[in-house]
Amino acid sequence: MRKLFQGYVRYHQNGPNMLRYMGWFGLLAYPALYALRFYKSEPVYDDLWLRLVNGGLCLLLLQKGWPESLKRYYMHFSYVALIIMLPFSMVFVGLQNQGGTVAVANAMMAIFLVLLLTDWRNTIVSVLIGAALGVAAYLLLNPNPVRPRDYIERIPVVVVMSIAATLIKLALEKTTAERTTRLERQQREGRVAALQETVGFLAHELNTPLSEVRLLVGGVRDMYVKGPDPEGARVDRFEVDEAGDVLKMLERIEKRASYSQDLVQRLMRSAYHHRYDGGPQELTASSLVQSLLENYPFPDDRGAGFVDVVTVTDFVLQGSRELLYLVLSTLTQNSLLALKGQPSPRLVIEIIGNGVGQPGGMIRVTDNGCGVPPDLISKLAKEAVPSGWKEGHRGGGMGLMFAQRVLEANGGNVSVESMAGKGTSVTLTFRGGAGGSVGANVRQSHTPTNQSEV
């Protein structure tokens, strides 16, 4: 019995709203139908007392004014109340009125409401209990009970229809449960996939700076001169080509270590404060790009001087500041890897809003590097494609997948255009949101002395 009741509680696990609606329905229907039946014809049995009882039960189903100490018994009360208000009342009154079409209709209505308010097992149990109690009360209160023939003859029809309705509801509940299980499994798989992509992205982003740190540390180690100092001083000696080489290498190590730490911190902040859909914030495309230029560890021989920023129309971005920075960072790293060995490297970041006052726009990152082989273009941003075609680098291909997930969560997308040996263009498209375009037409090379109008 406890297991049966637990099924009833699970059926209403999202809240007792259906039971409250039943309370409101009963408060209106019981007096209205009572008045209507006297208007049409004089009934054999006056069930006013029972309707008053049922009205009180409906009032209690609203859960208004229940003491806190009794609220935990609400589901127990509602179970008993449904049995009394529906199958018991309809069967008892139908027998008292000696059957008839109205009695059969009332019995069908009671079964229908019980079907809506309980799971299939409790539908069967509550209908059987209520009907049995109704028959018992009728026999107890009537020394010479009359068996209404038409009512009894229609019992098989009511039973068959009840069984059919119960089976239909069982099928619906089973289908709903399977769909819920499938959705929950998909959600779990989605969370696992998102975690895998995030971990892969982090490894993808940290691989290059940590590799450079390793090479720089190896270079410092190679400069070290073993053996005692000629003057006997306790000083480590390094052989360098120019004064300050060791300090420069240590500064480069510090810069790349700082960048790696910044990536981890940004990812942690986004995990704690935002999900992939981010949150409302005032972040413009130009400020995001400027943050990248100031913090990204560009190659020491070039710095950020070869990066051109073209702002056609600035616009407000929708999403997490941290995640969008990570997306732009991974695109920049991909371009830098593709530009290795290029005698005249060029990296252009374009900011193109949908128009002044119009929400949304795009950020396009274009390089003249090695490009992407045609057979891999369709796979990018959909699956992990190792970037082995980039000379000297073997990546896991997780960067664009991460970018696609972040953009899709904010209603945007990522598109890639490339020609092998010519270069690649990656476009981040942001759909219209709360913010509009806010900028003017500006072209800026990241060399401080070069700035001109488009």
UniProtKB/TrEMBL annotation:
Q: Where is the chain membrane-spanning?
A: 21-36, 48-66, 73-93, 99-117, 124-141, 153-172
- This protein's source sits in the domain of life called Bacteria
The Gene Ontology terms for molecular function here are:
phosphorelay sensor kinase activity
The entry's keywords:
Kinase, Membrane, Phosphoprotein, Transferase, Transmembrane, Transmembrane helix
- Compositionally biased intervals (Polar residues): 442-454
Coiled-coil segments: none
The protein here is known as histidine kinase
Q: Which organism is it from?
A: Ramlibacter albus
Q: What taxonomic ancestry is recorded?
A: Bacteria, Pseudomonadati, Pseudomonadota, Betaproteobacteria, Burkholderiales
